[in-house]
Amino acid sequence: MKASELIDLGNGLEIHFCLDAGDTNAQFTLFKVVIHPNAKVPAAHFHENFDETLYGLKGSLTLRVDDQLLQLNPGDHFFIKRGRIHSFINETTETVEILAFANPGVFTADYFKDILELMKAGAPPDRERLKNVMLQYGLVPVAS
């Protein structure tokens, strides 16, 4: 068993990749997301090529899926079928942890590494470049 790979986006959001597509014959990817209070979270988006299931580990995450608003608490799970617009935010003063399962395994740690490169530039990332990285990995941003 190998250790998870930590990708710290430096904005209150940490990604701990457990299983990448290469580990599962592209069947799925599995990663833990740590969302600190006031974290900069991804824009509302949908996935073109994969479904995502979220499982609450710690804290309470506010999740919006299409027009539905819900709280994901420890032990709760929510299936997000590809094409459904979703976003999330930690509105609490506690750190939130969720487990994310994406299938099939077309979504990889490389997405977060590419986002990290944009974040390292110092200034706020160029929105057009950010959008292009999202689209490259099958995430389609949606204006909120």
Question: How would you sum up this structure, described in words?
Answer:
- There is one protein chain.
- The chain is mainly beta.
- It has a single domain, classed as Jelly Rolls.
- The chain has helices at residues 109-119, 127-136, and strands spanning 5-8, 13-19, 29-35, 45-47, 51-58, 61-65, 68-72, 77-80, 86-89, 96-103, 139-141.
- Strand 1 and strand 2 (13-19) form a beta hairpin.
- This is Cupin domain-containing protein.
- InterPro entries: Cupin_2, QDO-like, RmlC-like_jellyroll, RmlC_Cupin_sf.
- Residues 33-100 form the Cupin type-2 domain.
CATH C-level class: Mainly Beta
Fourth-tier CATH superfamily name: Jelly Rolls
Structural class: mainly beta
Helix count, DSSP H or I runs of 4 or more residues: 2
The level of helicity is 10-25%
Shape: globular
Mean of all residue-level pLDDT scores:
92
Number of strands: 11
**H/E topology pattern:** EEEEEEEEEEHHE
Major sheet attributes: 6 strands, antiparallel
Unreliable segments of 5+ consecutive residues: none
Separation of the first and last Cα atoms: 41 Å
CATH architecture: Sandwich
In short, what is this structure?
The chain is mainly β and 144 residues long. It has two helices and eleven strands.
What are the main properties of this structure?
144 residues, mainly beta, Jelly Rolls, 6-stranded antiparallel beta sheet, 11 strands, Cupin domain-containing protein, RmlC-like_jellyroll
